[in-house]
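I have been asked to look over a protein record a colleague put together. Thanks in advance; the entry in question is below.
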Amino acid sequence: MRGKKRKRSGSGAICLILAGSLAVYVLTFGGRMLWRFLAEGIPFQAVVSLEGVERGEAFEEELEKIPGFCSLDPVIEVPVRLEAEGYTMDAVLIGVDLDQLEKQVSRSGEVPVGTAPALLIGEESLAAMTDRNGHPASGEKQRELLERYGEIRWQYCLTGEAGGAEEWRPCLVAATLHAPSGEIYMPYAQAETLTGKKETNKFLLTVRGKENHQRALEYFGG
């Protein structure tokens, strides 16, 4: 014997609407809260200048007061002109302790140990590349250079204070970086050798938490 179908009551429909609204709220607001919670433990980095800052015991104490502060590592910036397959661009190589650099490597390979600078190239750092006629490298060409980095002959010449007559020298690409994507890095010791600098006023600031990082940049005038 067939039973009669029961009509869904108005209160049941209201419960379903409330449950759906609650689910949306949890997925949006709860997701933001979760991301904020996770972001507080993520290290954020930036190069900051300490020019004119007296770095003594008082300065060290101020650093320790910065919420989430992790480290302050010396950086040497090396102005160069970079060349690959007829494309050139002016760039600043960032010499830093690569063990302290927070990075996501997209491609990497072994490079011979020697005097040639070993570069870590960000995936978006070749946007200024131009050909011999001054035409910018297309996005496709930039991707090709990154994908074939190990097969390509890379060269650089020093510019800025360390530069003189244009003298092209070989360099190597050890890896491409998904993050940080906009810069080109090299080992600190090699940057020191290229520039002859033993002291620097630039540093890589590492702070845990996005909001902490923003406040730290304000402290350093960034």
